[in-house]
Amino acid sequence: MGTGTLRQENAALLVLAAISLALITILSVWKLKRFKYRLVNETGGAMFYGILLGVAVKYLRFDGASSMENHVCTCPGLNSTPHLVMVNISSEAHCYRHVGKMNPKSSLDSTSHMETFDLDVLFNVFLPPIIFYGAYTLDQRRFIANLGSVLTFAFFGTLISCFCIGVCIYGVTRLMVLLGQAADGDYSFVDCLLFGAITSATDPVSILGLLSDLRVDLDLHTLLFGESVLNDAVAIVLTRAITTYDGARPAFDPSAFLYSIGSFLGILLGSFCMGFIFTVITALLTKLTRLRESPLLETSVVLLLSWSSFLSAKASGLSGIVAVLFCGLSQARYTVLNLSAEGRSRTKQLFEVFSFLGEIFIYSCMGYILLTFPHHVFKALFISGAFLSIFISRACHIYPLSLLLNLGRTKKISCSFQHFMAFAGLRGAVAFSLAVRDTTTEAKQTILTTTLLLAGFTIWVLGAAADPLLHSLDIRMGEDSEEDSKDFSSEVAMRGPDTARGLWHNLDHKYLKPMLTHCGPPLTELFPRWCGAFARIFSPSQIQEDEEEFCEIEPHTPPLNLDKTEHPPTPDDDHSGSEHQDDLLEGDLGLGTGPVNTTEPSVDFV
Amino acid sequence: MGTGTLRQENAALLVLAAISLALITILSVWKLKRFKYRLVNETGGAMFYGILLGVAVKYLRFDGASSMENHVCTCPGLNSTPHLVMVNISSEAHCYRHVGKMNPKSSLDSTSHMETFDLDVLFNVFLPPIIFYGAYTLDQRRFIANLGSVLTFAFFGTLISCFCIGVCIYGVTRLMVLLGQAADGDYSFVDCLLFGAITSATDPVSILGLLSDLRVDLDLHTLLFGESVLNDAVAIVLTRAITTYDGARPAFDPSAFLYSIGSFLGILLGSFCMGFIFTVITALLTKLTRLRESPLLETSVVLLLSWSSFLSAKASGLSGIVAVLFCGLSQARYTVLNLSAEGRSRTKQLFEVFSFLGEIFIYSCMGYILLTFPHHVFKALFISGAFLSIFISRACHIYPLSLLLNLGRTKKISCSFQHFMAFAGLRGAVAFSLAVRDTTTEAKQTILTTTLLLAGFTIWVLGAAADPLLHSLDIRMGEDSEEDSKDFSSEVAMRGPDTARGLWHNLDHKYLKPMLTHCGPPLTELFPRWCGAFARIFSPSQIQEDEEEFCEIEPHTPPLNLDKTEHPPTPDDDHSGSEHQDDLLEGDLGLGTGPVNTTEPSVDFV
């Protein structure tokens, strides 16, 4: 009991320290923002205070004396006196993963027991809601209007960026070998590619913080935020594929290469399906039952099922974060339409709090680890190469891809947009979570150190420079999203109903929406006759009778409202036709051809 | 990496199982409730499904083969290769506490690795929000009007109940020794008192579920719910004090007895202060800053600081649950007045979701452990004695204390109320958490088994019998709380402003409210001159100017609204004088003399 209580008290103290840090961050950043000092947001503040805590722990070295006593270790799941005990004092950790524990040559210093910021908790409890909330609050209509562009940037952009950074860094490491700063085998090309994949994940959290504080053009907002959300998925899966390839191989191994490509596609698709399956379950549950009568139950069900998508993906060896990302995207498209107005605002507010707190905890942990991780490897050349390469890689994918995309887009991505997109590649939580996962070799320790420095630099320096840059690029700011969304729908309404209906539109409008929600044409019309029974199950008559009136109200509160934090959705907006126009937009395969300049050419675009 | 991933996948599967259980519970109980079948609520349902899962695990014995492989054990905090490794295969567990692990003689059966429902997580993450939410949603005005009665029932009632059950059970164990069913030293008197303290904790969760489904008389509601919330605190601290006394002593030890009385009072007062300190911090933060502008920040700050009260109490060796209970009570009295309407509804909804899910997880865990705990000790005599004694003890404290209280109360506690209160002693989460804390001896295993059975019996049988009993006792049901609260205030308004102002009223109205909120008389008037600077700090002029208009609106939304789940507080209720009348009521030292029958005698009371 005694040691257990002592451990519990220590754990309580640790969590208290984290909470105090979070409170200080919240209050000071909020105070700064009130003075219209927009250069710092929560992520930067949290990281700063994490560093301060790190300094305190590192240099004050408090309670170093008691750090020896609490190394009591139990085996969860062991229920009896075993016949044979094998003690394996190897370098691998299983129950908990702690930064810096991997290296057996380290000395037991005073920081060791403060390092129990349990990263598993951080990444399994706090990261999923952040990613989910990011995906859930994407402006659905604009996202789908720009789907093609966003997907291009996220998929091909990340691949280009990863390869580009990999090549640059490989060049730098060769230079390091030439200059005698590293041995020949220290950094393999695969290590460099791994670094490329890790630092290709731009961070939705800090970008969202930046964009919502600055209120930029909504299309730019969608492109940037959508890209940063989706490229996390690609970067995560890419990192896993590169790890699968195994960096120890000296020569190129075609079979391992093909296998890792297969694993890349398999995990990406598998996680996507996992996320979507849980959305289907949630949507059907909320559609076919009268759960809508109790907002508390709706919220609980959405929360539990969305979290299940993460856990199921983890349990089946897929990527949990990618699954929860796609789950968030599809929940916002389908399930939301089945929820009551109160259930909708409650769900959003719940995830908002989770995401907000998770963000603060993760970023302060980043700052803390930047200072206290005992195996930092600072290689000046590697770091400067990395700083250079993230800009090069960003330029290498934004400009050429924009050029290509502009061939297909009616509303072009202007040059100033491209400049800003190339600039706004902030790195954050996902890159950190990927880099910290494995710190066994010196190359990987260099990667962690450099990633943390990159994150700090991009969040503080680029984040602070964004405001002046937007001014100098003359991108319209401070615009009202409601007003704009009305413009948007009226622009599209002019285009007539039957232009460019694509595959996605067919699937979404004709099958998914009617099946998963009460909107769209009745299922019995859509399905061939022999599917009649199937169609009837998904549109039960006794519910549908009084649902219809509900469905008619629904389009008045477009999912766009999800984006606004302070006000719950108001059903009195005048968007009577928005649902219909929404579907029209989707017909363009998302290349951004929606809000055309044919009706009124916008002066804002160069 | 491999074993780590495997462990993570197993953990994910386990959490998935818990989530599925929760979903099934939510959906089926909700479905039953929709058919007006009010006999089952979430707690009973969750326990039932927990038992089903237990049956499945116990009798299907699935994946028993793999249970051996994952017993990998790491020592968190150990950062280097130690010089000396001492492996202590004792019966005590430190990092994690698992039910059934304490007994070294058990065989490694297939259920062992499913038993990693981590009880620490359950009691440190899910229990505090339940208790907090219970205290937070107490009807403040009625609670304070009945404060004296509630405190009497909670404090003296629990002491009487503990002693009464202890004596009854001691008699039973003597009988068991006589009949040869137990050895002489198996059950000491202290063990019996411990059982008394554990089973004296009536459960706010299931009582709240019961009362809100049945909509009973509001005074009865307040008495029952208030008692069940507060007696948890007394029972928890009493259990600790009895544990401190140490049951191994054969003879009565006066110094240990005095020490445990001291520890009882010390922990109770200490935890109370800890909870109150964090309320003061929260209230001052929300009063002195303009946090009200962002409901997200308000909610986060209230959440973090309330959780801090739990953690700080734990870290300083006090009772976290008691601290969070008092924190919830005082947050609802002071901090709530400083929050914006949206912040208020958000905070409540957040805790509601936490509490709802926590409740389901804890009760299904209870059901699961009832079936799978490998060291159950079923003693028929002990169990029947326990069933008898909880009724006797309940009768022994409700009737005499009501008699005493009725001497001082203007609005008497009627006989039918007394009968229902004696009947409605449901046992649940807190009793379970106390019983499961220590299962090292056979006596304590008997206590756990019996407590689980008691909880199951009271929740299912008494819960289901409550509806018919209320009918037969003719206690008014289905009444509208708003209407009633208006009656209530108008009744009191007749009584003139200066009767029976007590100590509490003075403290609360004259000092705490003005200091912690924007309501009540200005501080500068209240404090003597030499405190002028102090008073000015707590009523900063630049804020107070436009706060005044806010404070005038506040009394229109009385904290009573907290009790209503579905609707956010509406500021258009016509309670213009309620704040004032509220304070009048508090002057009666809470003996329930408030709503006097002088104006219109109520026919409902015998």
From TrEMBL, chains A, B:
It is found in: Cell membrane; Recycling endosome membrane. The keyword Membrane applies. Its main location: membrane. Keywords: Antiport, Cell membrane, Endosome, Ion transport, Membrane, Sodium, Sodium transport, Transmembrane, Transmembrane helix, Transport. GO terms for cellular component: plasma membrane; recycling endosome membrane. GO terms for molecular function: potassium:proton antiporter activity; sodium:proton antiporter activity. The keyword Cell wall biogenesis/degradation does not apply. Residues 563-583 have a biased composition (Basic and acidic residues). The chain crosses the membrane at residues 12-32, 39-60, 121-138, 150-173, 257-285, 305-329, 350-371, 377-396, 447-466. This is Sodium/hydrogen exchanger. The lineage of its organism: Eukaryota, Metazoa, Chordata, Craniata, Vertebrata.
